[in-house]
Amino acid sequence: MNGTKLFDALANVDGDVIDRALSAPEKGGKTKKNYLRIILIASSLTVLAITAVLLFPTLKRLSKLVPLPVYDDAPYTADDINELFTKNAASGGSKWYTIECVRSFEDLDGHLLPIPDNGKISVYEIKTPVEPETGSSFSEFNGEYLPLLCEMLGIQIPEAKTGEICVFYNLGNYTLGFFNFNNEDNDRCQFHFNGEGGAVINGKTYSVNLAESDAAVAAALDGLRKELCETFGVSLPDVSVYRQLVDLRDSEGVVSDFSAVIFYNAEQNGVDFNVCRCSDYITVMFFSHDDAIENGTVMNVTDVRYSHYEFAPEELCEYTADVDLIPLSDAEQMLYRGYIFGGHSCVQCMKSQPELDFMSYDKVGIVYFEGMPFYAFYKKIPSQSYGGVSAYARALVPAVKVSGLEEFFYRAEMFHAD
Fold it and tell me: Model-level pTM?
């Protein structure tokens, strides 16, 4: 409550009460005007009490804000950090936070790495090597897996196409795609089911309820995992479940859900799979509108992508150094000020999202993006629950020393203010 509202409150004291106090006869040597003083004092105290209550959250917020730390030896600038996200348009766009859905609070641990307790944290460089001359060619990959996928999906094998980057086959309810080696996600082939009811794989439709535990989801898809591994000739015993909402809007403007289960081999990946994916993996995806999730509808497999690597993990993700991990308290100061990354960082664009109070976040840990470590702060969104799955907003703050934060965010805000 500001000064104007305070005087407005005082002005709202009932005028009839004041008039009666002023016109009241004297009694016992004292005038009723003393009651006026009592009324005004009581009103003022009441307003001040209300003011204190209303201001408490703001005072609490201000009490947490201390001068932002300045690092004279920062190895990175805010522009360096932002550049990581502009490499990937799907990293969150202009969002302040992304939304992740988990069945339980404990499931968030599967999305996070623990915060190191030695004051240091590793940084990696993500590389994109050129396809080796000895590697399998695009045409060989296309020719090898086209008949296998068609047989698995029960569709007629078409005449093989040729292309420099990719080829697609529209076969009834299925779209099959084969990609050149040097595409962004290292996808080599995928198939998408266009109809209703989900993909039929070797005569069976696989379904999951993402409100169930990760173990239950993995168990429901274990048969599919084995069939896909046999088809592509790989061993992928490990499973990660991702329940996430993204803005995939259809023609009617309805927000759709995107969830995925990934089969991978942790031992072959070289580094933690949460740091970098640099060995073969298969992504199984599900699509459903938010009303289906809200009603707890079981979702069917609609997409499968096989990502294949012909390089050793160390050639794709190279450890560069152990650098200073900034204290959690420093990261919180950046969080409270909105110095948050996750795409195109801009305060104006952040305001387009529903406001969340990260001053009382629910969980924090470490995540990596493009080889760079970040503190990931999670805040539950009470109004959003989908078939027993809870939604959490995730905000990213660099876990390393960064310079030029204030200048960067001011510049970004001014750009959009124009």
Answer: 0.69
